[in-house]
Design goal:
The chain is an alpha/beta fold. The chain has ten helices and 21 strands. The site of thymidine-5'-diphosphate has 15 residues, from helix 2 and helix 3. InterPro entries: AAA+_ATPase, DNA_repair_RadA, P-loop_NTPase, RecA_ATP-bd, Ribosomal_Su5_D2-typ_SF, Ribsml_uS5_D2-typ_fold_subgr, Rubredoxin_2.
């Protein structure tokens, strides 16, 4: 009989290795390898070409049921989902601890229940009394939700199998679940994968919408194997800075809709409030222009959101290595932009500490933010404020050119609506009907001239 080989799977990247090591050879994370349940060994001689059940093929244009979605009762949640919950689908909801995942799902569960759908909420992390306390705080304690505190997938599926399936099943969280048919402690890769598989199968068979809460590791990926992301239909991430009020719900993968729409919420004393018009949220709203501050019109799906980019430059006297710290933007991109400013514009950042912050706990991913960051940096270095009521956008190339970006017209229109008067960006932009005074810049040195002049 063939000897079963031990396999170790990395909890961070899902990489497989055949001996245990302290560091994953694929993603270089430490202490993430855990032993996988032994794969069942079957003979290679086994013939798979007979003995199965033959099925009929169907034409691509065969008539099918139209997709009926169920509203979560929260318009921002529905928007991020691409229109609501799809029956029989599985959603993975990731986010940092304490960001508000349980709060969001309890609110959604309450609305679905109040609208007449059957809802089961299983918490593996908190006792039923704790969930009830939260519901009390949210003012939804009267909602007809079936609540349970359990970590056994077998118990959960046995209980659910007794009567009609729910419209919505929430499992908070998948890392706390365990199945007695799989080896390993809860939270290990094989357990998380096996439990998710059973729950997803139940969802597909019964037609209930399943939401799995997933913890997130410090680098932002959903803990547990990457395979979980392949197993579900929708991967969502609930983001924000815990110290700030605003939360963004983003879908990273969606088999039933686009992934560029976001939902915006504010965490308040009575739970998450929807923010229907987020374009002004991340602006500080000060009247005096300040050196080192630039406004960038970001685009989230189809909605413009204006955000403030703040830079601080501190000259060092000694020869110590200067720090570069970034909150809300990409570190590597800042290094690149500083290098371009140094080599193409002759500015000197090498003896200065550089701090960059995106206001309001917002995380910028739009490449069009380059020019706004450059403007904030140059303005901080020169210690001169940028022109009053101005916005900045454009991608910066390594050669220092300012490249065109998507949806410039939409960004300008929204900025004009919010009282901005001047726009700076790539040179070939159709300003459309916006009332903004627009100046096209070809090269980064043009920006430096504007600020230093
Ligand atoms: P929670 O939903 O438990 O986060 P997660 O499930 O993602 O770990 O939310 C935790 C935080 O939200 C907690 O620190 C308190 C805060 N909060 C409010 O500010 N207002 C509220 O009404 C509720 C229920 C929570
Ligand atoms: Mg929670």
């Amino acid at each position: 009989m063939a000897k079963t080989k031990r396999r170790y799977i990395c909890a961070a990247c899902g990489g497989v290795s055949h001996r245990w090591q302290g560091q994953c050879p694929d993603c270089a994370e430490w202490n993430t390898l855990t032993e996988d349940a032994p794969a069942s060994v079957f003979s290679m001689k086994h013939d798979l070409s007979s003995g199965g059940r033959a099925f009929e093929f169907v034409p691509l244009d065969a008539p099918s049921e139209p997709l009926v979605r169920r509203s979560t009762g929260l318009a921002e949640f529905d928007r991020a989902l691409g229109g609501g919950l799809v029956p029989g689908s599985a959603i993975l909801m990731g986010g940092d601890p304490g960001i508000g995942k349980s709060t969001l799902l309890l609110q959604a569960a309450a609305s679905v229940a109040q609208a007449g759908g059957k809802v089961v909420y299983v918490s593996g992390e908190e006792a039923a009394a704790q969930v009830r306390m939260r519901a009390d705080r949210l003012g939804v304690v009267k909602a007809p939700i079936s609540l349970a505190s359990s970590t056994s997938v077998r118990d959960i599926l046995t209980t659910l199998g007794r009567d009609e399936p729910p419209a919505l099943l929430v499992i908070d969280s998948i890392q706390t679940m365990h199945s007695d048919t799989i080896e390993g402690a809860p939270g290990t890769v094989s357990q998380v994968r096996g439990c998710a598989f059973e729950l997803i199968r139940y969802a597909k068979e019964s037609g209930c919408a399943l939401v799995l809460v997933g913890h997130v590791t410090k680098d932002g990926s959903i803990a547990g194997p990457r395979v979980l992301e392949h197993m579900v239909d929708v991967v969502m991430s609930f983001e924000g800075e815990r110290s700030h009020q605003y939360r963004i719900l983003r879908s990273l993968k969606n088999r039933f809709g686009a992934v560029d729409e976001i939902g915006v919420f504010a965490m308040e004393g009575k739970g998450l409030q929807e923010v229907a018009n987020p374009s002004m949220l991340f602006l500080t709203g000060r009247d005096e222009p300040l050196a080192g501050s630039a406004v960038f019109p970001a685009l989230e799906g189809t909605r413009p959101v204006l955000v403030e980019v703040q830079a601080l430059i501190v000259r060092l006297q000694s020869g110590a290595t200067p720090r570069r710290a970034v909150v809300g933007w990409d570190n590597g991109r800042l290094a690149m932009l500083l290098a371009v400013l140094e080599s193409r514009c002759g500015l000197n950042f090498s003896t200065a500490e550089v701090y960059l912050n995106i206001a309001g706990g917002y995380r910028l991913t739009d490449p069009a933010a380059d020019l706004a960051v450059a403007a904030a940096l140059v303005s901080a270095l020169a210690d001169r404020p940028l022109p009053d009521r101005s916005i900045w956008f454009g991608e910066v190339s390594l050669a220092g050119e300012i490249r065109p970006i998507a949806h410039a017209g939409l960004r300008l229109k929204e900025a004009a609506k919010l009282g901005f008067e001047r726009g700076f960006g790539p040179s070939d932009v159709k300003t459309g009907s916006s009332r903004l005074d627009y100046a096209g810049l070809r090269q980064l040195p043009n920006l430096v001239d504007r600020v230093m002049r």
